[in-house]
Every structure is written in structure tokens, then in C-alpha cells.
């Protein structure tokens, strides 16, 4: 595996993979290429970066069809991914006897929406706790950064996930108005 796009390609081809499964597949691809495999910590770092960029998302066993209860997190393709399927992947799938998993995005949508709602509430609470007399420009910059992250995540998720996210959209609009009030104070 050379980059995050290949990570996305591996996940796209197989539906959902644990970090260990990604590591094993990436290792096998590297060996077939005659290269040095990435270490497990390196794979974890690539996955963490890809998750921050919404190239991949993390789900639980409950959101994958046919899995039994476990404590493993699985990576699925995210809304910003542009997968690049490694040429060697079909051979790796045969060698490792891997099979495709089906993700129930409607179940995942519910959890992702709840998490986004929590971020909105946390930012609202932060705005509520601000003392206008002690408000610094850095505070506003921090609030705007957090708001921007929430807004980007909302647009990514509303495009990618099934269901109506307009309620969260309305909450985000209210956040925007509250930040604008702070800016004008």
C-alpha cells in the first residue's frame, strides 16, 4: 500500500476491514511488489489521517451485515474517498481468502448523525460559557475552526449518508448566527 488512495481502494473492494486486516492486506501487497511492508503503527497512522480527512470512516460490527458481536472497529469508505485499487489486490484477496462485507449505511448514518449532533451541542455549550468581557480573538478563531469542521462534516455526511439531516443543518445554521453575534460584539 503506497498511500491513502490505495487504502481506500482496498477498503472499497472489500467493504469493511479491521486495522489488522488492512495491515495483512497491505503487507501482502508490498511483498508482491517486492517492497518493504509498512509497520502496523504506520498503517494505524495512515488510517487515522484518512479518517480525519473523511476518506474512511469507522463503524462497529453492528453496522456490518453478518458479523457477530465483537469489540473490533472496522474501516469503511468515507465520503471524500477517491479509491485507487492496487493491481495486486485481487491476488491478495485470493491468497488471504478474504471476502466482501456489506455495510448497512442507514445504521451507520444514525450513529454519525448522533456524533455530529454532540459536536454541535459541545460547541453551543462552549459559546454559552464565553464571558464577553474576557473574550479574546484566539477564542473566536478556535470557535470558527471548530464550526468549520462541523460544517464540513455535515456536508460530507449529508451527501454520503442516507436519510434526512436537515434538523442538524438547522442547528448548524443557528451556530453560525451565534458566532456572527460574537464577531460583531
UniProtKB/TrEMBL annotation:
InterPro entries: DUF7109 (IPR055533). Pfam families: DUF7109. It comes from the Archaea. This is Uncharacterized protein. It comes from Methanolobus halotolerans.
